[in-house]
Amino acid sequence: MIPRLSEATLDSLPADVVRFGYDRRRTQAGVVHLGIGAFHRAHQAAIFDSLLEGDPRWAVRGASLRSPGVRDQMMPQDGLYALVVREGDAEQVRVIGAVRDVLVAPEDPAALVEVLAAPETRIVTLTVTEKGYRPDPGETGLAAPRTAAGFIAAGLARRRERGLAPFAALSCDNLPDNGAHLRAAVLAAAERDDPALRDWIADRVAFPKTMVDRIVPATDPADVDALARRIGLVDEAMVKAEPFLQWVIEDFPGERPDFESAGVQMTADVAPWEDAKLRLLNGAHSAIAYLGGLAGISFVDDFVADPAGRAYVEALWDEAQETLSPPPGLDPLAYRAALMRRFANAALQHRTRQIAMDGSQKLPQRLLAPIAERLKRGLPVEALALAVAGWIRWQSGRTDEGEAFTVDDPLAGETTKLLAPHGDPAAQVRAILTLEIFPPALRENSRFVDVVTRQLTRLAKSGARQAILQFARD
Ligand code: NAI
Ligand code: CS2
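A: This is the predicted complex of the input protein with D-mannonic acid.
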């Protein structure tokens, strides 16, 4: 049997595996991370791992707010895991030592509150997906929190009682103005039980906005097997990623790592970075997910390997780009060219189905915001509208070939109810636009309704492969 990666087997790693040089026993856990999925392990934890080489304060205690899966993968390995960075034929394997511990909140909520209140905790980071910021009707209050915001409020309440300075809370989810979303959710959780705590948090706690970027597909069992062959150890917690990594953080007061030394950009204004990333990278990703998914295309690189797919993505970017105010240092054309290369990275095997998840929570910032801006300026929105039509068609749970799948979306029940009674695209569009995710400015805009109906009709008649051909270039 192949042994497992752990402290005990570290020394058996092949020489070309990159390893941390710091002494894990001398580190302090200055960071608590909520939602320890693949992305945290390939992005923030990799940055903290680099920072630990010069400053022992920034080790991470991770927490899962839902299932024990990641704890059960990581803790038999002493929290160690490999970050496998792939591009084309090149592969780098790096073992990350930054994660000291993983807690499972539903098993012991009090333990997580205690960790958040620990004097050494200076920063709390979060990747709880876009839907993790929605109010949870099951939230029971500060005594037994369930949501990320509830835990943060409870941890801050205890710090306040103990006279400890608060931590800064950094959302690393793909939401526009993610700091403000998190702040609002935490203030609401605090106010419910303790209005004075709400005021203390409002005065004292930093919720910096952040823009995060690195494509991190979910790990497949085949990735674990390939890594075991490569390093001679089984690593159930490995993650795979592209080489590109960007983290832009709104500068904040209080104790923080020397982020800049690890390549993080600290800035006064994250918004233009965020808009460019959400509308160009994520907007195209969602379009590829729905149109590609309907056409039976499993991976992002396959979509852009087809000249028609590339031409469609360029048409979508032409539309989205005109709605941006790029920050100094971001050349939109160079950014787009780099994105196309990133999407074409066949070694990642990034599934369109993964990106299609939770579309109702992604559409507003990725597609609807640039559409609203263009309509205000009287500009056409054909390519963006085709992506929205693709999402609507996706909600019916069948590909163009008739293959059934489960729609993974917190609003899936509602969208099924809205769409089911209608066979024709015009009625489907009218029904779906009643969802709260569509702002009144769009819902009541006849140009928007018409163009989405036209694109949905085309999808229903000829399928996604044909529909993207309207954007073909010579
Ligand atoms: P993952 O599926 O590996 O992990 C998701 C994590 O979120 C898990 O810990 C899960 O328990 C937690 N979660 C899900 N719903 C939740 C809820 N309602 N409340 C609390 N926790 C919840 O996914 P991954 O790849 O780690 O991505 C997570 C998020 O990170 C994305 O939704 C996105 O906002 C952000 N992100 C991901 C990137 C990627 O390429 N994977 C890149 C940039 C940002
Ligand atoms: C993707 C993102 O799953 C999705 O919705 O669009 O997670 C994307 O991979 C990242 O934002 C890249 O930084």
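Residues 174, 213-215, 281-282, 285, 354-355, 362 surround D-mannonic acid (ligand 2) (CB under 6 Å). Residues 328 and 435 are 37 Å apart (CA to CA).
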